[in-house]
Every structure is written in structure tokens, then in C-alpha cells.
Amino acid sequence: MDAIFTVQRLASYLILIGLVFCLLSPASAYAQENPDAGSPALATDTTPPHIGNLFPENGKTVTENTTLLSAGISDNESGLSSIEFKLDGLVLGTGNIPVNYSHGLAFTYSPPLQSGTHVFEVEATDQSGNVARKSSVFYARSSIWPEGSTLNAENNSFYSVTLSWTAAEGSMGYRIYWGQHLLAEVDKSVRSFEATELEAGSSYGFKVEARLPNGGWSTDGPYVFTETLPLPHFPPTVWSVYPETGATVPTANPVIKAKIRDAGFGLQEDAILVKIDEEPVPYSYDAKTWNLSAQAIGLENGIHTLTIRAIDDAGVYKDYYGTFLVQAVWPAGSALSAGNVGQTSLTLAWSPAAGSGGYRIYRNGELIDTVSNAILSYESNDLQPGTSYVFKIEAQQSGGDWTTDGPTVIATTGMLSNPFLERLIKLHAALMAGDPSDVQKVRSLRDEIAGLKEEDALSLIDPVWNKVSAKLPLDVNRPELKSNLFQLFKAIGSIHYDTYEAEWLDIRSNSAFREALRVIAAAGGQESLTISDVTTFLTGDGDSLIGVEGTIAGMLAQKSKLELAQLILDKQKQTELLLGALARMFSDSEAYKVTSVLNRLGVTPQDLLAVANNFLGKLREDEPALQALGVAYIRSEAIETVKITANGKKRDYSLKVLDIPIPSVLLKWTKVSGDDKVTVTSNGTVSIPDQLANGTAVIQASLLNPYGGNAKVIFQKEVTLVNGGGN
């Protein structure tokens, strides 16, 4: 997490410095002094609001008990002004937003409906006067449920509730629902039902509907909310189940295993229940070791359900429910290997599958080729350098289906470049080009991070670790895994700028780090997670993925100058910016493996921010180091623009950072060296006299130090002016 908070603080300092430039520009001052400049949206909006999803729908039949009329209404430009509902020509309600309007839904309550046809009309007006209208014609029929019909819940127990209801007139039968889930359908003479297999101490909503004489079903039946009784004590414990949920077993005759232990209230050993696909399976239980064993016989290839129930002497029970896949084509020990790994290619080889009719080769979940059963190797080309790939091989079964549990291998191609290292190299060069004291400040921070001791700092990662730990299998060595993760974060956060390449290779080759990420990836639903995936999350991949750093920069580029002003003055808005960037990345689990895994583990952007704040509270060298890095970042990202005039004899220079112009009042331009007759003014004008054919000089721009002290050099370049070489 050191790397995460470093990027977070880095981006904040760098970008906020850039924002200062905008705040001092004349356009920003005008915007603050002229709040009544007018709204372009109101002047140009000719698009009426959008109306959709009317209820009742056009042509729909409802009962006379219907009480709500609604419509989805939105306006993406000037905003809504008013909404009007009519029923059969009668205005039901009108008013300014947000009366009867919430999150795009407008609604009002209907007067009592009479049987027959009704017309529902909706009119919406926006702030620019644009009007939209929509209507529906629906039919109301009499309900077969008499007024005052009820559904009652009684005899509530830990795991069941008895439901009973009053009769519907002319009903041909009843359906009982839990929420939207159909529990049962019963004859018209039955007016009670026992809902079983419920969770103890839980709330439930039940509903009953009647079958109409025409074969349809009512939609306005009575409902009831109730709760099952809470357990008087903890139930027995069922754990270490094999096969675990989602596992694939290579045999049709797997041995089911589990551990069962009572919670101090005895265990009905003879009442233990083991079912596969709802069919009981004989079992044995050893009370001394808590080991349960059950032999399944002749399971077909495919997905099977596994249920284990343990009941204590008080009747309190614990259910385990899972699914597993039987696929016996691949013999035990089947393997896929990757050899001859280069920068853009590698060779796969695999052991044969029993009775295979051919093989399919997958790369990162995508089918790339199909070969005959006589081929047991394959060359994969067109790979990206320095990239990890997951390869998988599947076999065709005798019936024509394909296996899903074939062997896999993870291979990483040789590195040509790495965006994370490239960022370090670029920032290192910018840092070294500046004040030597800034270099020492950064090294002091890295040394402090590297010197963090587990006994003092291990708890700093708890906001994320606690979420991860809760989703790990029981057999994972949690203390060891947490230690390895802490050391990994510390290693990334303490890479020194003068030995970064060797340290980076050490991190990538560390087997403990790779294993830690593999375990977390598996818990988060991924086959693999690599160091490169982590750094891609932070700084992008140099291509389409922009990482945390690029996401923040992109969000800033979309903000108005007033919003940027508010951002620089409000730390809460800075925090919201970071959380917003992380939220965008968390919403795209397909692009970033890190966010995919964290989402599955329940880790949130707020958890990452909490870890970052924990480290900031622990470190003492962070402020001066991050200030130095902020200036170095501006130096590394500064891009000059030049305006050539006077037929090439005059150039006016300015700088941009993240496409934000730096006001000239914040910069001081000087000549470092060059021809005597080349002049450089403090505002960035470089010129030569009329009689000079050309002139060369090294110019530099210094930024007013936002942290106090001397100005910081952020740009330097050799330029040549040619008389007659421009406008």
C-alpha cells in the first residue's frame, strides 16, 4: 500500500500545483466576478424531456386496487420545470420538481379506479419551455380478493413459518411467494402452507396470489412480513469441506470430506445428513477427530450439488451448501508447461488426456487454436513483451463436449520495457536535474519506508487486510500471508531512484511475493495476479490502461476553473477526487485485475484510502519528500509552447503541465549560456537583433516555489533563432 499512497499523494501535490496556475488566470477571475453571465444551456436547449416506462402500461390490465401511477422522466440539458399527471382528463397533481419526483421517477397516487378503460396522460416541461407528452390506455378489473383480505404468519420457529390466508372469491388455486420466488402452488381448497428451510433470526416477506377463472393469476394478493426466531445458541460448525465450492474433481467416485464440531450442545451423529444432488450418501463420522467421510459412486461429468447438515441435541442445525464439477478426462498429474519463453513467443507442451478427440488452447480465457489429438505442443506467437499470460488446455471428450478443468500455466514474456520503471526513470531524471537537497529528501523517505518494522507497522494495512482475510480459505497461513504482503508493499514503496532496476527485478522474482498474490487472486476469483498487475493499477500499462495516476489527471482535465479553485482549497474535495478515481477503476473489473480481485474480496476505495492515511500518520519524512517529488513531477511533465514572430528573430515561450497553461507570473525565464547577443526576458521572450543572422542560447524556466524558499528550475532547453526563419 506504500506505492498506492505514494501515487495518491504524488498525484495530489503535482496536480494541485498545476491547478494554482489556472486559478491566477484572468479567465478564472472573470468567472468569479460575473456569476450572472447567463446560462448557455437555457439559450440553446431545444430538446424536450424524455418520458418513458408509464405505469400502468399501455394495454395493461390492472385491478381496481391499483393505487400508484408513475412515469420515468428525465432531462439532460436545462433541467425539469414541471410535471403534470392526468387520469381520464382529470389533473391529479402538478408542481415544481422535486414534488413527487425522485431519481428519475415521477409518481402520484390514483383515486379509486372503476372497472373499465382509463386514460393516463403525462406532460413534462423543462426550464427552456420544451414540452413532452405521453399517454397510456389501460383497463381496470375487479379484484377477486375481497376488501380486508389478509395473509397471516404464525407458529414461527427457527427455520419455519406457517402461513394462512383468507379465501379469494372464485379462486381456482393459490401460489405462495417469498419475495419474487415461488414457494408452492396449492389447490383452491388449501389455505395454509408451511414455509421451511428458512434462516433463523431473519426477516421474510411472503405473498399469496389467486388463480383467476380464466387461468391467469392475480397480482394484488395480500402479503405479510415476519421473522423467524433467533437461535438460542451457536449451531454446530462445518468446515474444511472437500470438494470445496467451485472445485473440479478428476474422478466419478470422489470421497466427500468435512470436519464437524458441536458448539457445546451435543451433536446428533446419526442425524447428520450428506446429499449429492439431493440424494443421500452413506457416511461415517469420527467424534474424536471431527472427521466426516462419505463415498460417492458413479457421478456423471458435470456440476453437482453437495449438502451437509449437522444437528445438535437441541435441534439447532447448520447447513453447508456447495457445488463442484466432475470431469474425469484429465488423469491426475496432467500438466501444461511453457518453454522457450522469449519476448514475443513461447512453446506450450502438455500431457495427453484420456480418450481425447483433440485439444483447444486458450490464452487469458480466449480460444486461440484447436489441434488434433496427435499434437501435444504448440507455439504461441504475437505476445507482448514483459506480460504475464494464463494458458489453458482443454480436451474433447468422446461425446463431443469439451473439458473445463484442463491444466493451466502462467508464463511471463521477457521485458522490453515496463511503464512503472519508465515512470521511475523519468521521475528520477527530473529529480536529479533539480536541487540536490530534494534528492536527499526523497531518499530519506524511501529509507524510512524500508525501515518500517512489522511489530510497529503491520496493522497499518488492516483496513484492506481484514477484508481479504475474511475471504481466504481456512487452511491459508494468515500471519505468513499478511507478513509477505506487508513486505511486498514496503519493497515497492522503498525502491531507490539510483538502484531501481535491480530492486524491481528482485521484487518480480521473489517467490514469497508471487505466492502471496496467487493466494489472494484465487480468493478474489482470478487465476493469477502479478506484480505487473499491481503497477499497472498504479501507473497504467503505457497503452490503453492509465492507472490511478492517469485517471486522476483525466478527471482534473474535465473540471471547470471554479471547480479547480474549490478543489485546491478543500481537502475534503481532494479526498473525494481520489475516491472518485478509484471508484471509476473499481467499476471496470475487466480492465484491471487488481480491481477485479479487490471487488470480489469486498475491498473498497475507502479501505485503500484508510491504509494510505495510516501510513501518512506513521511516516515523518513524507511531507518534504512529496514536495520534492511534486516539483520533479512538474519538471518531468512540463511542455513548452512557442510563438515565433519578427521573421524568426523573436520567440515567446510558455509552459503547460497536464494541458494546463502555467501563468507567466509564476515563471522566471533566464539565459544559462549562449551567444551574447541573444536576449532572454523574465517573461519568456527570446530575441536576436536585426543585424544578427542567427543566435543560440540555453534557456531555463524557474517556478515560484509553492513551499517557500528558492524558485525551482522546471525547464531547460537549447534554442536557436534564425533571422528570416519564421513569421
TrEMBL record:
Signal sequence interval, chain numbering: 1-31
Presence of keyword Signal: yes
Database matches in InterPro entries: FN3_dom, FN3_sf, Ig-like_fold
Keywords: Signal
Keyword Signal: yes
Pfam families: Big_7, fn3
CDD domains: FN3
Boundaries of every Fibronectin type-III domain copy: 147-231, 332-416
Name recorded for this polypeptide: Fibronectin type-III domain-containing protein
Organism: Cohnella lupini
